[in-house]
Amino acid sequence: MTKRVAVIGTRGYPSYYGGFETAVRHIAPHLADQGWDVTVYGRPGQERVGDPSLDERITRRTTRGSESKSLSTLTYGLTAVLDTIRRRPDVALVMNCANGFWLPLLRLAGIPTVVNVDGIEWERAKWGRLAKFVFRSGARCTAWFADRLVFDADAIGDYWRREFDKTGVVIPYGGTETADLPLHEDDAHLSGKPFALVVARFVPENTVPEFLVAAERIAEQYPVVIVGSTGYGGDLDEQARTLAASNPNVHWLGHLSDDARLFALWQHAGVYFHGHSVGGTNPALVQAMHCGAPTVARDTVYNREVLAGTGSRLVAPHPDAIAGAVLALLADPAQRRRLRSAVVERARSAYTWAGVCSDYEHTLAATAGLATPVLTERVDS
Questions:
Q1: Each residue of 98-115: b (16+ CB within 10 Å) or e?
Q2: pLDDT tens by residue, 248-292
Q3: Prediction pTM value
């Protein structure tokens, strides 16, 4: 019997927008390998239909919605849910607890749900009061109506247990191991030089404002490469643009969807600064570790969990602390070599796509009543 799953809440397949899209690029083909009929819902113009990695076994469906910053997740989620109800899969994999408002519709239709709750969206500085209320309300609906919850970090699971009295399965993100890559021709001027790298969406909770200040001091001695943007324009984009224009040692590349170029930057970086503070296991950090990037990270419970045992430096979200830690590591080749080995070993042991995809497949099958019991759920420690 063919098992059928609908994936709701991403921008489509294949898409390179963010963590959910990265996960689905790996999970969907794996499910197809295991005999699943997979449908991924997306948004117009967000998929790379000519991508060489596209798996033709995956059914891609585009629905309508509002492209506004505050309503896009809710509206596209609703139209995807309505189409899913019409098609009646065995189970739905829902990404983002903001879609919790629509889970009662799936329950009424008899479609069991596995929900990846994402991070603590209502703590993100980029959202206004109304948006934060909507995200938290969606989380409450998720807690009430989801059949199974997925947390991408132990710390996220701890939060949901405290706040919503709910347990679930912990499935983090994975990373891709690649052979040694040369720097892209546009980055060839960095070859042989220790340089600082940051890769982040330009939002305050990713410590971007503090890093841009720290970059001025770092650039006095070493090149600084900044990858990311807001996606909407704004003050942080303008600040990065001005900094790069006025300082030849600062290079702002904007958003990069070329994985090979990004992986090469991580492989060659002297230091990677990871400033994400609100999410759980961050896909960029995991991928940087697989690439062997010596890491300085903002000190959060999530980053401590992912970098555990590597000896990576964790710092306060202050420009002086960031610049000091980055400069110290750039000046210490022996420590950079030790960190490269340590982060790769940690990534290989805890954050592989093979393990992640297998865990999702078992969780979906068990939730749909099609397989052996699901992974052991988190309990109080």
A1: bbbbbbeebeeeebbbbb
A2: 999 999 999 898 999 999 999 999 999 999 889 999 999 999 999
A3: 0.88
Burial of 27 (0-12, 13-18, 19+ CB in 10 A): buried
Q: Cβ(262)–Cβ(187) under 8 Å?
A: no
47-83 confidence digits (pLDDT tens)? 887 888 899 999 999 999 877 666 778 899 999 999 9
| Paired tokens of 307 | 């970098």
Report d(CA 134, CA 140) in Å as an integer.
10
User: Mean pLDDT over residues 240-245, rounded?
Assistant: 97
From 145, 147, 103, select the one nearest 377 (Cα to Cα). Answer: 147
| 261 and 278 Cβ atoms separated by less than 8 Å | no
CA distance 59 to 37: 8
Instruction: With beta carbons less than 8 A apart as the criterion, state whether 313 and 271 touch.
Output: no
Which of 199, 351, 346 has the alpha carbon at shortest distance from 269? 199
Alpha helices (H) along 291-380: 301-306, 319-330, 333-350, 353-367
Phi and psi at 34, nearest 5°, equal -90, 10
- Tell me the pLDDT tens digit for each residue of 207-232: 999 999 999 999 999 999 999 998 87
Residue 103's alpha-carbon distances to 84, 107, 195, 267, 324, in angstroms, are: 11, 6, 46, 41, 47
Q: Is 41 helix (H, G, I), strand (E, B) or coil?
A: strand
Which H helix or E strand runs over 137? helix 129-145
Strands (E), 154-236: 169-170, 196-199, 224-227
Pick the closest to residue 263 from 289, 243, 228, 237 (CA basis): 289
